[in-house]
Amino acid sequence: xxxxxxxxxxxxxxxxxxxxxxxxxxxxxxxPVVAGTSSSNAGILIPAxxxxxxxxxxxxx
Length: 61
Fold this sequence. Notes:
Blueprint: H1 2-18, H2 42-59
Protein name: Ferrochelatase
Signal peptide: 1-20
Organism: Rhodobacter viridis
C-alpha cells in the first residue's frame, strides 16, 4: 500500500510541475485595414439642392 501511495504521490507531483506555467493564449497581430475614401459628391450635392430649393421658394413670393 505504501508503494502505491508513493508512486501516486510522485506522479502527482511530477504532473503538477508540468502544468506550472499555465496556459497563455498566443498573440496574433492583425493587419491594419485602410478605409478608402469615396469619390461621391453627396456631401456637397444635398446642400446645393437645398440652396436651390430655398432660392426657388424665395423667388416665387
